[in-house]
Write a structure and sequence with these properties.
The protein has helices at about 5-10, 15-20, 30-35, 40-60, 105-175, 180-215, 235-245, 250-270, 320-385, 390-425, 430-435, and strands at about 65-80, 85-105, 275-285, 300-310. By secondary structure, the chain is of the alpha+beta class.
Amino acid sequence: MKSLRPRLRLLPLAVVLVLAAPVHAQSLVDLYEAARAYDASWQSAKAQYDANLFRAEQAKAGILPSANLAAGVSRTQFENTNPVTDRGFDAQTATLSASQPLYRPANFATYEQGKRQVELALAQLTTASQDLAVRVSQAYFDVLAAYDTLTFVRALKAATAEQLASAKRNFEVGTATITDTREAQARYDLTDAQEIAALNDLQVKRLTLDNVVGITNATPRQLALPLALPMPEPADMNAWVQMGELRSPAILQARSNLEIAQLETEKAKAGHKPTLDLTASYNVLRNPDGSATSILRQRLNTGQVGVAFNLPLFAGFSTQNRIRETLSLEERAQSDLEAARRSMAQATRTAYLGVVSGQGQVRALEAAEASSQSALDANRVGYQVGIRINIDVLNSQTQLYQTKRDLAVARYNVLLGTLRLRQANGTLAVEDLARLNQLLQAR
C-alpha cells in the first residue's frame, strides 16, 4: 500500500488543522442572520426601502399646508428741488404667508403614488430577503454535500486499500494473479486522485459560504439521519400557484407599478382641471424715519385671507400628449403584470415537480443503497471462496459509495427544492429555514 504521508505534506497546513480540529457548527438560521448584516445586495435593498419611505413622506407635502416668512430692510435717499428736500428713510417689512390646497388633483395623485412606492419597496425588500435565504441555503448545503463526498471517497479509499492488501497476500501465496493486484492498485490510485479533488472542492465551497455570510470558517451542522424529507404542503400544484397570485413579490411589484402608472395618468389629466387653494397672509411695513410723503414714523399692518383659483386654458397640446404617453405606459405596466403572473406560475409548477421528482429519486436511491450493500457483501464472500474475482469486489465498492454520494446530494436537492418552491410563489420566510433547522444535528 502506498504511504499517505507524502501527499498529506502537500496539503496546506491550515486546511489540515480545520478538518481535524473540533469546531462550533452553526445552524442555517444563524448563518442567514449573519448574512443579513453582511451581504451587500441585501443591505442595498434595505437602503432603497428606507429611501422610498422618506420619498412617500415627501409626496404627502403636496396636500398639507405650507407657510413662509419673508423679511427685508431697505434704505431710500429722497431728493426734491421744489421745495428743496434732501433726506433719507428706512423701510422694514415682514410677511407671513400660508396656503392650504383645497382642490389639486395632481397633488392627491402624487400622494397616492407615494403610498404605492412604499408597497413596491417592501416587495423589493422581500425579494432580496428571499434571494439571500436561498443563496445562504445553497452555499450551506453545498458545503455539506462536499463534505459528504470527501467522506465517501475516503471510505472508498480505505476499502480499496483493504482489497489491495488482500490481493497482494493472495498473490504472495499463489491463489491470485498479479492482475488482481494491479487492478486494485489502479483503483486505489484513482480514489487517491478523487480524494484530492474532493478536498479542494470542499475548500472552495467553504470559501463560498464564508463569502456569503461574512464569517470565517463557517461550519454547517450535518443532517440528522435517518431523515424524513418534508412533503410539499398543500400537495396540490395549482394551490401553490394560487398562493403566489396573492403573495409573490414579483406580482406585487408589477401590480404596484400598474397602480402607479394609473395614478400618473390621473396626474396628466389633472392638467385640464382647475386648482383651488386657501391663502392667508399678514404683512408688517415699518418706516421709522418716515416715507417719501411724510416725515412721521409709520407702521402699516395688513392681513389677507382668500382663495386662489386657477383654470388652465391652453398649454400647446402638451397636456393631451402627456395623457397619451401615460396611457401607453399604463398599458406596458399591465403587460408586465401579466408577464409576472405567467412567470410565477411557470416557476412554481417547475419547482413543485422538481420537489416531487426529487423525493422519488431519494426513495429510489435509498433502495439502491441497500441493494448495492447486499451486492458488495455477496461479492466479498464470492471472492473469498473463489467464485468472484477482485474486479467484481472493486466495482461493487465503487457502486456502493457512488450511490451513497448520489443519495446525499439528492437529499440536499430536495431540501433546497422546497425553499425554491416557496421562493417561486413568494411565500418563503425565515420560518421555513427554522423548519429545516429541525432536520439538522444538535450542537
